[in-house]
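Person: At home tonight, work slowly through the protein below, taking as long as you need, and write a paragraph about the fold.
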Amino acid sequence: MEIRTLRALVEVVRQGGFSRAARTVFATQSTVSKAVKQLEDELGLRLLERIGHRSRLTEAGEIVYRRALTILAQADDLKIELEELRNLAGGTLRLGFPLIGSNTLFARWFAAYRSRYPDVDIKLVENGSKRLEELVLAGELDLAASLLPISEEFEWQEVRREPIDLLLAADHPLAECDTLAFEELADMPFILYGPEFALNPIILEACRASGFTPSVATQSSQIDFIIELVAAKLGVALLPRLIAEQRPHPLTKRVAVGHPAIYWHMALVWRRGGYLSHAAQAWLALAGSPEVYGG
């Protein structure tokens, strides 16, 4: 079993077909197809079902794909560790940041790191927590910011824990309340986040615990747009307090919500048992420094 055949399988799955995978690995479609066929012959099992121009994993393929991700990530770790052993100049830090809150949580951190380690090449990916976790497990990111709770596949370091507040139209009958219980929101249409956001499961679980499934007016990955939709009385939204405080709107009102109280609990995560580069360790070591938090 060779790394190249495993990588071919992984890219076919990621890219949704052989032609796109070929472009990703800088090979011909025939080369990628032969690599996957070689892997299937070696294992004696069919790994992919060809459906038109697309390919789908078989049950055996699912198992091999998951294992391949781990093997490829470990191979990448080995290369990074050996490069650092050779004292290559600078090194690279591969970071994943969330789509919301990064300006507050990581802008000063980023600047402090750049000041201390100017020769480190920082590669930044911005996406929802779910996708960032996938990239960490695949070995494509060293560290990523994600919301707790997280899978046991990760180790983590806490960054910040913020209450999640309700945002509703300023003239809503409940806008003058100091606090609201989740059960009081049962008849309100909700404006949720895009599917890549880890906030959605937290909100939906609090609704279920309060005995209802919310009606969803719409979903968006843009915080400012969500706030404008609340102001336009399309529904209510739930935002981390620090995000809501940064974006006051004259036509909305922020109210604390509890019973159950829910939190935006952000952490930096990395693959459990994976190699953590010196560049990544230096990033984690900056936590709590005056440069980052202005102390």
